[in-house]
Each structure stands twice: as C-alpha cells, then as structure tokens.
Design goal:
Bound molecules: uridine-diphosphate-2(N-acetylglucosaminyl) butyric acid
Helix content: 25-40%
Number of helices: 14
Largest sheet: 4 strands, mixed
Strand order of the largest sheet: 22-23-1-24
Length: 420
C-alpha cells in the first residue's frame, strides 16, 4: 500500500493539463455493452476505477483494447451476470445494470457495498427499470431483473436529495432500446449525463433534453458502434484551481471546460481570488487577502458535492468564519476529522460544517477516507508547515490521474512511498 508525503510550503505556479472525466468515462464505457459493434472512446483517464470498469466489461464478454488514453470495446456477445467479486470494488459498477437489461432483457448484478460518504441506495434506478417493464428482485445481495421487452414510460427520478446522476444514466441506457417513448422527469443535468447522452446519440439513440431535468428518449431497435472523446474532468479542474488558490503564484489549468466549473470559479472569486478564463483554460491567482465563504452543495449547475472537501481545506486557512452545507450527502465530512488533526478549527452541526480559519496548518499523519477527502488532505498538506503523511492513497488513484506527478510539475514537493 502506498503512502503520500506532502512537504508543505512550496508555492505552485505554471500550467497543468486536465484529464478526461472519470464520471463520464465510467457510464460511457458501460454503454459500449449496448452494441455488438466496436466503440472507440478517447481520453479515458488511467485510473483504478476505469480499470475496474474495463475488467467488468471483459468479465461480461467484451473484448477490450487500450492504447494510452484510447479504449476500444467490442461486445459482440454479452453475458448478463456480474457477481460480487467482479463488481464489489467500485460502486459505479451499478451502471452496467441498464445496458445489460436493454441488451439481454435480463441482468443479475451484485449490489454495491456501503460507502463512506453516506448511505447510497439505488432505489431510484430500480424504480426506473420497473417503470420500463422489468420485474426487479433483490435477493442474496444481487439485483435480478427480467423483462420480455422493455417499454417506454413516464418516470420521475427525483429523490429526496434531488436528482440521481447514475440513476439517470442507467435508466436512459435502458430506455434507448425500449419500445416507444420514455420521458424521464427530474433527470440529473450534470455535464457527465450530457456526455453519455451525446455518446448514445452517436450510437444511433434518440435522446433529447440532455442538460435539462426532462429527457425524452425515442426507443430504437438497435445501436451501432461510435467514436467519442470524453469531456474534461470538471472535478479535477476544480481541485487544481483550489490547489492554485491555497498556495499558488498563478496556476493555469488547461484543456478544461470553464463552463462546467463556473460554480467553483464563482466561489473562488467570492473568496477573493482572481480568476481568468479562456475557451479552454482557467487561471487562478491571489488578489490580496482571501475571504471566508458561505456555500452549499447542489445538483449541477450548483456547487458540486465532489468539490466540498477541497473547499473545506481552502477555507480552513481563510481568515474568518465559513459555513459549508452538504445537501447531497449530508454525512460526507470524514475529511474534517483529519483536517482537525492538522490544526483546523471545524465544528460539524448536522449537514453544516462551521470553519474558523486558522493562520496555519501543521503537517501530520492522516488517513484518506474517500476520493475527494484524500484530495482535500493533499491540498491541506501543500499549505501546511512540515510533512503531511497520507495513508490509504488508493482512494486518490481511483479518481485522479497521476495527481502527485501533476502537482509536482507545478512545484509541489510530493513523494510516494511504498509501505509493507
Ligand atoms: N439517491 C437515492 N436513491 C438512488 C440514488 C441516489 O436516494 O437510487 C440519493 C443519494 O443517496 C444522494 C443523491 O441521491 O443523496 C444523489 O446521488 P447520485 O445518485 O446523484 O450519486 P451517484 O450517481 O451515485 C455520482 C458521482 C459521485 C457524485 C454524485 C453526486 C459517479 C460515478 N459518481 O454518484 O461522484 O458525488 O453523483 O454528484 O458519477 C466522486 O467522483 O467522488 C463521486 C462520489
């Protein structure tokens, strides 16, 4: 198991390139199961999560070729059963449910396990499949589904915490091959959902309304192969911008999509940082003293829950009182206990974190609990005095392509060490 040592206090500057989006790549790779023809997907980030997804596709019978960022998947024959051992390592493996049901009229997929960021049910996914005419049972830790033929329906997928991203993806992937028209109300409008809809439309699907809360899907008989470029990872973009804010002398994030991360650039602007954008790059630099913030996570285009932890790291050394409210996953605060070990002053009050900025953080041994929490600890370590030793870094490798090397190019001093 690797550890990361962050030597704090080195200013960052220069340019850094964003990778393709993890959360687009995962459902798009799953969608390749919908056709027998080859699909070519470019800019697939090299992450443990994308590697798990490719292993799942191979287990299900697909042929996979990978040459740097380009992945070719040919799913000529598909088997519809994905057992626990194959899917347990990644929650996003649930997004093979929709494609398997559409392609095979049946699917048995083991349920994903618990997750440190909170209870992560899939009831809305299953409600959508049932509405399309599938008989759904949960038995022995598996979701079992069967249908003689999927039929279009009107489905509302909005849950008590708002829309569901992978639920929308899953039901959309099932509906593209259903007979007739499906309307998904309360759909997620995240850029990753739009990217999947674009890919499906290139495969011959007929989806309208992506990027709004209402998707209209005319079912087609079959889909064909397609070629696609994954969109830039907006959360990686935001993470680098916060790195630039936390200890930068001018950091430019390139190959980015500024529109997708406006809520974060607006928040950084409100916190007193200078933000400049071009068509595909964003520069963050200091602009005098930084200011505390009040912000809440929301579905897109609101402030993303996947940037909450990184923002807490920034605010923990911003003078004054900041209040962060987590509205999507109200228990997603594991990083705060670790930030406190570095000297942050934070109280958790239900879904709110009240942060009193301190002058400095001190390096300490800390433990990564999930992907974004680990990114927050790296960011805090960049600013802290001394060395921050982060264990369980496999969480970082799930979703950030070579984070330590990329930050190193900006001047960060980060070492990766092997432990027994
Ligand atoms: N929810 C339900 N029932 C469901 C599904 C979701 O109640 O059937 C609730 C969730 O518990 C949560 C809310 O709805 O309170 C939103 O969850 P959502 O379904 O949108 O989450 P997800 O699709 O499972 C994706 C990302 C997450 C990101 C969330 C929210 C992927 C692979 N994962 O998860 O990304 O936090 O949307 O934007 O796309 C990450 O990348 O670190 C990550 C956790």
């Amino acid at each position: 198991m690797d550890k990361i040592l962050v030597h704090g206090g080195y200013p960052l500057s220069g340019k850094i390139k964003v990778s393709g989006s993890k959360n687009s790549a995962l459902p798009i790779l799953a969608a390749t199961l919908l056709t027998r023809e080859p699909c070519v997907v470019h800019r697939v980030p090299d992450l443990s999560d994308t590697n798990y997804m490719l292993q799942i596709l191979m287990y299900l019978g697909a042929q996979v070729e990978r040459a740097s960022g380009t992945v070719t998947v040919t799913a000529e024959k598909v088997n519809s059963v994905a057992p626990y051992d194959v899917v347990r390592r990644m929650r996003a493996s649930v997004c093979v449910l929709g494609p398997l049901l559409a392609r095979c009229n049946e699917a048995t997929v083991s349920l994903p396990g618990g997750c440190v960021i909170g209870d992560r049910p899939i009831d809305l996914h299953l409600k959508g499949f049932e509405a399309l005419g599938a008989a759904v049972r949960v038995e022995g830790g598996n979701v079992k589904m069967f249908t003689p033929r999927l039929k279009g329906a009107i489905i509302n997928l909005r849950g008590k915490f708002g829309p569901t991203v992978l639920g929308t993806d899953n039901v959309m992937m099932a509906a593209v091959l259903a007979e007739g028209t499906t309307v998904i109300e309360g759909a997620a409008a995240e850029p990753e959902v739009c990217d999947l809809a674009d890919f499906l439309n290139k495969m011959g699907a007929r989806i309208e309304g992506a990027g709004t809360s209402r998707l209209i899907i005319e079912g087609v008989k079959e889909l064909h192969g397609a070629e696609h470029d994954i969109i830039p990872d907006r959360i990686e973009t935001g993470t680098f911008l916060v790195a630039g804010a936390i200890c930068g002398n001018g950091v430019t994030v390139t190959r980015a999509e500024p529109k997708h991360i406006e809520s974060v650039t607006t928040a950084l602007g409100n916190a007193g940082y200078n933000i400049q954008t071009t068509k595909d790059s964003i520069t963050v630099s200091r602009n005098g003293a930084s200011k505390p913030l009040e912000l809440g996570t929301e579905p897109y285009p609101g402030f993303p829950t996947d940037m909450q932890a990184q923002m807490c790291a920034l605010l923990s050394t911003t003078d004054g009182m900041s209040v962060v409210t987590e509205n999507i996953f109200p228990q997603r605060y594991m990083h705060l206990a670790e930030l406190k070990r570095m000297g942050a002053h934070v109280q958790i009050e239900g879904p709110r974190a009240v942060i009193h900025g301190v002058e400095k953080l001190l390096g300490a041994p800390v433990m990564a609990s999930d992907l974004r929490a680990s990114a927050a600890l790296v960011l805090a370590g960049l600013k802290a005095e001394g060395v921050t030793e982060i264990s369980r870094v496999y969480h970082i490798d799930r979703g950030y392509e070579h984070l330590d090397e990329k930050l190193g190019e900006l001047g960060a001093h980060i070492e990766r060490v092997k432990t027994k």
